[in-house]
Enoyl-CoA hydratase family protein
Amino acid sequence: MGISTARPEPGIAVVTVDVPPVNALPVRGWYALADAVRTAGADPDTRCVLLTAAGRGFNAGVDLKELSGGGTPGHRALVDVNHACAEAFSAVYDCPVPVVAAVHGHCLGGGVGLVGNADAVVASDDAVFGLPELDRGALGAATHLSRLVPQHLMRTLFYTSRTVTAAELHRHGSVWRVTPRPGLAGAALELAREIAAKDGVLLRMAKAALNGIDPVDVRRGYRYEQGFTFEAALGGVGDRYRAAFTTGRPGPGREGI
């Protein structure tokens, strides 16, 4: 369990997240994921990285119990989480070779951050994507959701904390292929294999070129959003919502900050 890397075929590195029960990652998990993606991409023999997960779903975002637990003074825990998530998201975006995300089940919060920064997405027909951030007292990853859906849909999903299905994302063109869950691994590997068949030097040039013409500065956008998460924490509303979620108590009212 944890973060592992396998090489099932020449040119392909498979990075797998396995953090039961729902792949909600603690700070060290986000850093481990960043390290695994960077190490895989830095290998000159790698021409495609396949990002996948074991268990019930692809990713449930941040382990909120770590933010609510004791032992970390002041707002240090939130700062640590912000930095860790930014590192993992950047590792996917800055990976020198294409990254294919294979998504099943839930892809929430930080999961959207990973997928939104990937180069291609293959998903099972039970996959759902969403940002429940407002219900958790946070803000963030709208930068990445906006790479998956049109602007007004992104805003509606963010304001309502609703999810969107893999089939809907396929219609928007952000998911390459939707497959029954038993066929997800094979479908994702098929796409990774097609990419890895290309010249490795040219693939790295292509990735750098596409990042260079990207209209969205994902690093700056996400860090800007994180500032509002910290502001919500300073005002107390963030802590109240996180506490309600982690304890199962009814959430706070709809008062403003």
Notes: The longest helix spans residues 76-94. Residues 253-257 have pLDDT under 50 and may be disordered. The radius of gyration is 18 Å. The chain is about 50% helix and 15% strand.
